[in-house]
Sequence to fold (632 residues):
Amino acid sequence: MKKLCVIGTSHVGALKTGWDAIKAEQSDWDIVFFGAPDFGVTERLRHVKRRGSKLVSVEKYTREYFKVTSGGQAEIDLEAYDCFLVQGAGIGINLIMRTIYSFFRSERHAMSGGNVLVSEACFSDAVKGLFLSSVAARLADEIAAAVDTPAYLVPSPCPSEGLLSATKTSKKVWMEIMRNWQKIHAAGDHIVLEDQYRAGLDAVRAQGYRLIDIPAEFYSAPCFTKHEYCKGSEWLQDAKYEASPDDDYLHMNGRYGATLLKSFFETVSRETG
Amino acid sequence: MKSPYQGLPRRNFWRTGVADEAPETIQNLYRHKFKIGRKDKVATAGSCFAQHIARNLRGRGFNVLDMEPGPPGLSDEQLKKYGFSLYSARFGNIYAVRQLLRLAQEAFGEFKPRKWIWERNGRFFDALRPSVEPEGLSTPEQVRLSRMMHLSHVRRMFEEMDVFVFTLGLTEAWENEESGTVYPTALGTIAGSYDPQFMSFKNYTHSQILEDFLAFRALIHKHNADVRFLLTVSPVPLTATATTDHVLTATTYSKSALRGVAGELYQTYDDIDYFPSYEIIASPFSKGKFFAPNLRSVTEEGVQTVMRVFFDDHDPDGQQKTKQSGGKPTGTASETRVKKEDQEGKEICEDALLEAFSS
Fold:
């Protein structure tokens, strides 16, 4: 049996729920999850550093989250696994929207007041740089520096198409995200953003990272996930896995997690035999 | 009556002030007219050499304004490539004082440049800051919009700054006489093709430069009465001259005129200080050792010597603050790939493009 270590943020909830649903039929694999949700825009996983052959959080909350999600392990022993999967952690389309598109527009986007207009080359370089300097890329580097075990990266989910018709959400930050995505869609910029996102992922691959694609069946349109993969979503929150609110259009459900994991297992088996 | 030189300090005499000193250790070369503190909002602009000053002030923890920060994700090298964080706004290099004056006038609605959008291979450039988007933008409208937004940041910079650090770079410039528009490069250098009917060569005189700076100062004081100015003269020689003179003669004229203007302004106005970066790098004092083999570029050692003299006076107790990288550990490939390729502090200069025209 191969042992997989999954490292991720609140989105680990979907993978965990999906895994619980399919593990009986995946007898070749066992998974240990290490999750720590972002705190606002602060990535908790950035506190995770390599100490010899272990990944250790230098911050107590992340350590606590690791203990809860892994079943008691505060540290990741890199020698104990056959494979690693880092989910999100700085690679995802939502991050482009929140950190770059909210302030900058490329010449290919529709313009709106207040955003700084830059060339497509500049915007695209920023996206690539964002992904290449992500916590996910760093964790993959840290793992590679310690062990020969393959480490895969997978982007965080694209938001659900459900937010395009939503009128309100319970959290202020979700409200802002919802409005932004609605504007992006209305302007047609989601098509351009998808291109820029793909180019960013290609840059990650070009640097030698093992990046797996989000399965094509998840997409409803560029940048968006079919709502059926969001309904009944699960997230890692308050040190436990739980159902996320109905108006959460960013986290996905167990079906998403199960499909992603199956696709991942296929990729690994194809690449490693 | 005793000689007026009797009793003067060692710094007043060439032998004891210069010949017996070394650039790396010299003391009292510069005494500030006004103190620049870490809380002062410092704006920087000027020719390429000014980029070093901005970078080092930031590195030291001074409050250098950055009105137009670049997108997250860009490395330091990429930020420079796209004109971000070189200066306090994304205006690129400002070589001539007339160019600075026009920028301020434009920012405050007192000047409208003409023919400032240039085209090359279907891409459009802001001719007044051509280096900030090396590949240009898709349409003239985008260039116009981008400049409009830029000017709002420039205006805010002029209104908010406490100290304006300006490095005087060149006396030579290209101007559309009809409109008074000053360009940092000639048509044909970056885009378009040179048209003598449209653009004429200027080699500003001492009195023109002085007048331009005083006009600039008066305009800024209208919007920001308390601002102070720190002038430096770039020690970097001309890459090329468009005069009939030899480039060495042209460089000497240019630097002498700029140094003369800076000196006169310093002597006349309490709110204008002068910092001798030119003397440290280009005078016999340094025996040319701070120039790279091309005898033009200033070495990092030279830059650090200049900044040491500056900080010895303005920030004697300060410690070099290393830039944090968001808590990320160093040493991994992902870190080094996108991080700081800035160690050599290579500057971005449009005039370096002129080298391509030499045969």
